[in-house]
Amino acid sequence: MPDFAEPLARLITEFKRLPGIGQKSAQRLAFHVLRAKREDAEHLSQAILDVKDKLGLCAVCNNIADGEICQYCSDSNRDPSVVCVVEEPHNIVGIETTRQFEGRYHVLHGALSPLRGVGPDMLKIKGLVERIGQGEVREVIVATNPNVEGEATAVYLARLLKPLGVKVTRIGMGIPVGSDLEFADEVTISKAMEGRREM
Amino acid sequence: MPDFAEPLARLITEFKRLPGIGQKSAQRLAFHVLRAKREDAEHLSQAILDVKDKLGLCAVCNNIADGEICQYCSDSNRDPSVVCVVEEPHNIVGIETTRQFEGRYHVLHGALSPLRGVGPDMLKIKGLVERIGQGEVREVIVATNPNVEGEATAVYLARLLKPLGVKVTRIGMGIPVGSDLEFADEVTISKAMEGRREM
After folding, report:
1. Of the candidates A60, A68, A33, A78, which has an alpha carbon nearest to the alpha carbon of residue B45?
2. What's this protein's function (chains A, B)?
């Protein structure tokens, strides 16, 4: 790797710490910033700090919020009787892009993982139990990831929440729309068979 | 697109202004910053400003420099009699990774483009002529891009500099190493034929 002037080398290193950014992308980004107007660089620089300083977690659902309560929990048009449980705040983005779900959310900030020492106490489950205790919630849709940790979390939540009198459902698993059976692994295909629907 | 809290939406917008970063990548980067330690966010934020504030152009070759003279011009191990002319500072990176070139550089900061109104006066050509006037330069290697603008710039430089008594050469064009003839366009193939070498 050639020598860059120190501030440029440092910016490249910082960009490389971001996910999906390798040496070449980091160089391209750094040279872009170098060519950009100082004003634009300032905006980016400030936006990075503001995200850390001005955002907190919603007191109800633990989603990212710029106030005490996030925009989904404070939206009275959304149905409080259906709560979709996700692992991370960015999972909400994917669900919102469907424009299908009109309920509320609950963010666990992780998934159970005995291997990595993540137990139920380290997830934001207590708040979910409290929300259900208030009696408004009718259904909990568990939208944790379809992997070992997400599945374990889903099973744990089902056992914990069903006795409280709520319906606990799991998002459907199967072949992605637009994909090809050829590319699906056997576990996905067997889930798709299990989850078949009458036409 | 779902609604993000304002600081997060702003950071996503700022990331999207960077080259090669679309909506999805910008979201991933922004959520990464959100999860990162404040210290790490500060380092990135500061590095962006430092690149604008602490770097200038080398007084000799117009490369990026954190002092008055860049590291290549101040390196006495490098041969001052061979000068490689490039369009942009980041082009030097590609040449340096070969570890083959031991001469000096000259950065034009652009290429001639009548269509976009870029004439010779807008490129840093004057300094190059002055360097040659000092008598130390023996060969100028024109490593501008192999496209219309870069080629026009190369032809212009050759006409301008040859009368000053220096050898002006152009980097070789042909089939990229590791590629396949099948994927090469006809102009590249004809350049490769022209540039053939006896074995």
Report:
1. A33
2. May play a role in DNA repair. It seems to be involved in an RecBC-independent recombinational process of DNA repair. It may act with RecF and RecO.
